[in-house]
Amino acid sequence: xxxxxxxxxxxxNDFRVLVGIGVGMRNHQWVSSExxxxxxxxxxxxxxxxxxxxxxxxxxxxxxxxxxGYRMHFDGYDAxxxxxxxxxxxxxxxxxxxxxxxxxxxxxLYDRKPAILKFHRAGYTSFKHVVRQRNVGGQxxxxxVARDAAGREHDALIALHGAVSVPRAIDYNRHxxxxxxxxxxxxxxxxxxxxxxxxxxxxxxxRKSYALGFIHSDLSEYNVFVSPNGVELIDWPGYVVTSHPNxxxxxxxxxxxxxxxxxxxxxxxxxxxxxVEYVKS
Length: 281
Hints:
Elements: H1 4-9, H2 12-25, E1 31-32, H3 36-40, H4 44-56, E2 60-63, E3 69-72, H5 74-86, E4 90-99, E5 103-110, E6 113-120, H6 127-133, H7 142-160, E7 169-173, E8 176-179, E9 185-186, H8 195-211, E10 214-215, E11 224-227, E12 230-233, E13 240-241, H9 247-266, H10 272-280
Antiparallel strand pairs: 1-3, 2-3, 4-5, 5-6, 6-8, 7-8, 9-11, 10-13, 11-12
């Protein structure tokens, strides 16, 4: 989890060494101590001084087999992303408001306005599982899996915003996406007064997404926000395009998940095949 106390202790050359390790990790499982001065563009003695600081802060890991080498923890990647975002408009990180299988979400301020910071963690626990489930490329390090997931979500929000009710992407760096705050509350935790109307609104957003070539592929009551003004669909890193080989299955699953929730909680009955056909029409 992001630690602002450690972040405030970091100095310019600490960041340079972190960046150097990140550069080396593109092609190496562990970045050797001999490589680091060229990657960080610092003298060897200064580089090793910074390495010891980063080890003490637990932002990097060290191995001695088969050679002395280093790589970043997710905490080190957090520091790099927040450092970059802070130079562009991020002024505060507040409370942690959500923890999922593949992300951690914080409140924040960007350009003095409330924002959401989503730290992707897709490669944190099971890289092989994530690669099987998502089109994340062949990177070996979990931080790059998370980076690719963040990039996908950012791209989806940019493409959908204005036509589909989704958060507006404000900025992103590495594995962190900054976006607007979704109005209202999570559907799973909110009792709505007119379930048929809200279900229609969700289906309409799914239909608009499909028309633009996007299928959420992980839609449920946990990533829909509802308010008196309507709905907003969140969590888009796992989207697929409508030409995907499993597009039909994933669309039907999205629709079925939502219909099951409304049937279970409110007794609303809809035919899944009919809804899917409407979405595709």
